[in-house]
Amino acid sequence: MARYVIGIDLGGTKIATGLINERGEIIKKVTMPTLAAEGPKTVIAQVKVSVYEVIKKASIDINEILAIGVGAPGPMDVEKGVIKNPPNLQGWDDIPLHNILLDEFKLPIGLENDANAAALGENLYGSGKGIDNFMYITISTGIGGGVVVDGKLFKGANGNAAEIGHSTINFEGPLCGCGNKGCWAAYASGSALARFAREGIKNGQKTVIKDIVGDENIKAEHIFAAAKQGDDYAIELIGREGYFLGVGLANMVNIFNPECIAIGGGLTHEWDMFYDRMLYVMKEKALKANVEIVKVVKATLGSDVGMIGAAAVAWNVL
Amino acid sequence: MARYVIGIDLGGTKIATGLINERGEIIKKVTMPTLAAEGPKTVIAQVKVSVYEVIKKASIDINEILAIGVGAPGPMDVEKGVIKNPPNLQGWDDIPLHNILLDEFKLPIGLENDANAAALGENLYGSGKGIDNFMYITISTGIGGGVVVDGKLFKGANGNAAEIGHSTINFEGPLCGCGNKGCWAAYASGSALARFAREGIKNGQKTVIKDIVGDENIKAEHIFAAAKQGDDYAIELIGREGYFLGVGLANMVNIFNPECIAIGGGLTHEWDMFYDRMLYVMKEKALKANVEIVKVVKATLGSDVGMIGAAAVAWNVL
Predict the structure, then answer these.
(1) What is the pLDDT of residues B50-75, one digit of tens each?
(2) pLDDT tens digits, one per residue of B111-121
């Protein structure tokens, strides 16, 4: 008999809930925009509805589900199953999501921070299959990460390990959303890339980027689009993006000494445009013994990684 | 019947070998200066002699020893028991120390990089007793570290994890011995502190530091001595040292999310002179959820940490 879990990717903009089998295959899925502005009560109701919808869609009963896993934004207390106060989930403050879902569904519930869940998913079903020392990094609006050793997440004391986006790569650098200066994310996230472009344009840089989109609406994708048109400034910005990614990757290689680093997130849609530079800089900066052993690859689960990762979390609580 | 192992702290300047019991107590010890300039053959002979001397001193037979542990400078291949090419062990290049000692003593042999061994020692017998998510950092001429989770070392793919001294904290910073720019060690190690003082004096800084010792022989200890005499420049340098230590500590707190960080190494002799500033900066820079849970303490095993750590490595191979 087939065995199923439910994986819930609870994000600030989207909830994606899937019925997933032991091979990490999605049997059915339901997605909906997160009504984040309406606060935790509404969002929690959405989460519950998404579970009922997905089992209805699959024509199975809740009793046929073995466990439910959730990947959600941090910070959280994983031990207690409590979501603290994520910047992109407005009004959340110490919400005991584990117990809320346990009360509703009477099933084993696993809760993990989203990047950790994704790391587990890629390790179990994606780019990191069979790799003992594995690291997943997501580069999108921010930078997050998760580390899996011998099939187990490296969680830290309260589940907040691998907050790699907020490691300082230049203590004299720009202010980050977290309050620190010169975080990796403040240099190399998609938002940082867009910020650099806006600053450059303000300072009179010639570029077609602002012809593609208004000054204020620049996103990373517009810079890649401009670079493909041969725009010098966009090409320079992407060169710097590769450099900043390489600096942080070198730190990860020295600190975690992984066998494989898989990179996912929005920026990897343009993988070929920064990969060479990123790798060059990483190899130049990291220690030889650590560089020798590491492979850097593109993550393979794509936009389903959060949901499949949440399912991996569910299998892990069984 | 008492059970014993031998712990060998193989350093670039000193070999310290101890007979150690299950409580981490040193029964007998032998130390000698490392004849590093004479190359691996001589140093390996010294290591063997030190083992025979310590069991002779304790009036026991080699058969009463359960295992031998060695802490040595990296890089190394821990799986294969091979020491690669440590900067402070001249002429070493892929030396299979594990097999050499196995041939000699016919006992289980454990080999670990020195900072990892020390981390294990502090976790088992020192400042980290009973702590599940523990990190040890040594600040002396360089900066090294080791992470222990649930009693097991976080080793990485080839035993070179936690090379934290070579994480970049300012990619525009000074060149480090490893070839990278702006490593934590290039800012906050004892050598870096001394280098900043020499540079300042060259640039005309007024200070009593050079009256304590000639310009070229300045070490961290002289700067602390000058600060105790009220020397403004020395006090400024130590303030900056505390800042740089805090920057790197914040990174460790965000990345490893430990419950306890114990700091050892030469600089901790002057713990009170930099602790407050270091902690202040760390708390200001690291994420709240991670700061809340972490304690930062002085390591307790002192100068025996290498030897006791090597003994912990020995117990771990049994």
Answers:
(1) 999 999 999 999 889 999 999 999 88
(2) 999 999 999 99
3-state secondary structure of B131: coil
A60: how many CB neighbours lie within 10 A of its CB? 16
Q: Is the pTM of this model over 0.90?
A: yes
- Chain B partners of A295 at a C-beta cutoff of 8 Å? none
Nearest-CB residue to B166 (from A76, A172, A254): A254
What is the C-alpha radius of gyration for chain B, rounded to an integer number of angstroms? 20
ipTM of the complex: 0.94
- The pLDDT value recorded for residue B214 is 79
Which residues does chain B have within 8 Å of residue A290's beta carbon, measured at their own beta carbons? 156, 158, 160, 163
Residues 6+ apart with CB under 8 A from A124: A24, A151, A312, A315
Mean confidence (pLDDT) of chain A: 96
**Of residues A167, A169, A294, nearest to B171 (C-beta):** A169
- Fold of the A129-299 domain: Nucleotidyltransferase; domain 5 (3.30.420)
Q: Provide the pLDDT for residue A1.
A: 67
pLDDT at A262 over 70: yes
Does the pLDDT of residue A83 top 70, yes or no? yes
- Within 13 Å of residue B123, how many CA atoms lie on the same side as its CB? 31
* pLDDT at residue A58, as a whole number: 96
Which one-letter DSSP state was computed for residue B208?
Answer: S
* Residue A134 half-sphere exposure toward CB, CA atoms < 13 A: 29
**Residue in the structure block whose two tokens are 């020893």:** B65
Tokens 């320079």 locate to A236
Q: Which residue of A has its CA nearest to B295?
A: A157
Which residues of chain B form CATH 3.30.420.40?
4-122+304-317, 130-299
Asked if A108 contacts A69 with a C-beta cutoff of 8 angstroms, the reply is no
Q: What is the mean pLDDT of residues A283-296?
A: 96
CATH 3.10.450.590 fits A4-122+304-317, yes or no: no
What was the pLDDT predicted at A17? Answer: 98
Interchain contact, A168 vs B166, CB within 8 Å:
no
Query: Which residues in chain B land under pLDDT 70?
Result: 1
Q: CATH classification of B130-299, choosing from 3.40.50.10540, 3.40.640.10, 3.30.420.40, 3.30.428.10?
A: 3.30.420.40
Q: Which residues of B touch A76 (CB under 8 A)?
A: 289
Q: Where are the beta strands (DSSP E) in A129-257?
A: 133-139, 143-149, 152-153
Distance from CA of A196 to the nearest CA of B (A): 17
In the numeric block, which tokens belong to residue A215?
Answer: 């000054």
Pair of tokens at residue A214: 């208004």
DSSP assignment of B26-54: EEEEEEEE--GGG-HHHHHHHHHHHHHHH
Neighbours of A216 (CB within 10 A): 7
Partner-chain residue, chosen from A158, A181, A247, that has the shortest CB–CB distance to B289: A158
Instruction: Give the mean pLDDT of A87-96.
Output: 92
SS3 A224: helix
pLDDT value of residue B187:
98
For A167, name the nearest residue in chain B, comparing CA atoms only: B251
Q: According to the model, what pLDDT value does residue B1 have?
A: 67
Residue A111 host element (H or E): strand A109-113
Query: Is A163 within 8 Å of B294 when comparing Cβ atoms?
Result: no
| Nearest C-alpha in B relative to A256 | B161
Domain with CATH 3.30.420.40 in chain A: 4-122+304-317, 129-299
